[in-house]
Amino acid sequence: MTEPFSVRIGVRGYETDTQGHLNQAVYLQYAEHARWSALRHGGIEQQDLLARGVGPVALETTIRYLRELRAGDEVEVTCVFEWGDGKTFRIRQTVTKTDGTVSAEVTAVGGLLDLTERKLVKDPREVFKELATDPAVFGL
């Protein structure tokens, strides 16, 4: 996949804080929404993961806030999956206003939890390849 997956989100007034900018916790919700949208776009539904006996887990999330967002702003939230050799993977995300201003950068480390063993699966890439109809969405 040449371009990262992205989803457009409109900032709603009730998501803002007393300063009038997007509440810091909502950035996490936007990132999570984009990740689940990427999974669906690649052909993986939540019920597919459950039927396989796995579930995605967040192990670490870092947000770098760069420019404020206000009610009415439109943003694109991207997802780029990065795979190593171990049990975890990284997802890099950028929250960008339609004028090109980068508002935030989100980096998450995740894994796939075996729901029976309650341990991370050894190679999450293989599970993604097995379940995806379009593995390119995940950089596979």
Structure in words:
The protein is of the alpha+beta class and 140 residues long. The protein has one domain: Hotdog Thioesterase (Thiol Ester Dehydrase, Chain A), CATH 3.10.129.10. It has helices spanning 24-41, 46-52, 124-131, and strands spanning 5-10, 54-65, 74-83, 88-97, 102-114, 119-120. It is elongated, with a radius of gyration of 16 Å.
Strand content bin: 35-45%
Radius of gyration: 16 Å
Order of helices and strands: EHHEEEEEH
Unreliable stretches (pLDDT < 50, length at least 5) are: none
CATH class: Alpha Beta
CATH superfamily: Hotdog Thioesterase
The class by helix and strand makeup works out as alpha+beta
Fraction of helical residues: 10-25%
CATH level-two architecture: Roll
Query: Describe the biggest sheet?
Result: 6 strands, antiparallel
So what's the overall shape? Answer: elongated
Count, helices: 3
- Cα separation of the termini: 9 Å
Mean pLDDT: 96
Annotation keywords:
about 140 residues; alpha+beta; Thiol Ester Dehydrase, Chain A; six-stranded antiparallel β-sheet; 3 helices; about 25% helix; elongated
Break the fold down into its secondary structure elements and pairings.
Elements: E1 5-10, H1 24-41, H2 46-52, E2 54-65, E3 74-83, E4 88-97, E5 102-114, E6 119-120, H3 124-131
Antiparallel strand pairs: 1-3, 2-5, 3-4, 4-5, 5-6
